[in-house]
Design brief:
single chain, mainly alpha, 6 helices
Length: 111
């Protein structure tokens, strides 16, 4: 079940943003963006962070059932920061991995 994609779609619709507008801001086609909402396995850290910024929301609103308009906002902000930190670390790890691959490929090309 595509829970994250459904939440993104709901937030997008609540804010009156079209799929076309989202796609343009993410620099993808509308059909690719539509598939992203239907299949959240297509999401990556970079796209997710852009979507959160475009929707002017926080990451926890996408991952949690918590309503952002109620409850302890300090706890919610802490949750948002924790999820953000995890996503940033994931991205840093991916960058490190890609740098290692580039170094390896440079050695092969020079050989």
């Amino acid at each position: 079940m595509n829970v994250i994609g459904q939440k993104i779609k709901r937030l997008r619709e609540e804010k009156g943003i079209t799929q076309e507008a989202m796609a343009a801001q993410l620099d993808v086609t509308q059909s690719n963006y539509g598939r992203l909402e239907k299949d959240d396995r297509r999401l990556n850290v970079v796209k997710l962070l852009k979507i959160v910024r475009i929707l002017n929301t926080n990451i926890s609103s996408i991952f949690n059932e918590t309503d952002n308009n109620t409850g302890d906002t300090d706890n919610l902000n802490n949750t948002n920061k924790e999820v953000y930190d995890i996503l940033v670390e994931s991205l840093r790890s991916e960058i490190h991995h890609l740098k290692e691959e580039i170094s390896f490929l440079r050695v092969i090309v020079k050989s």
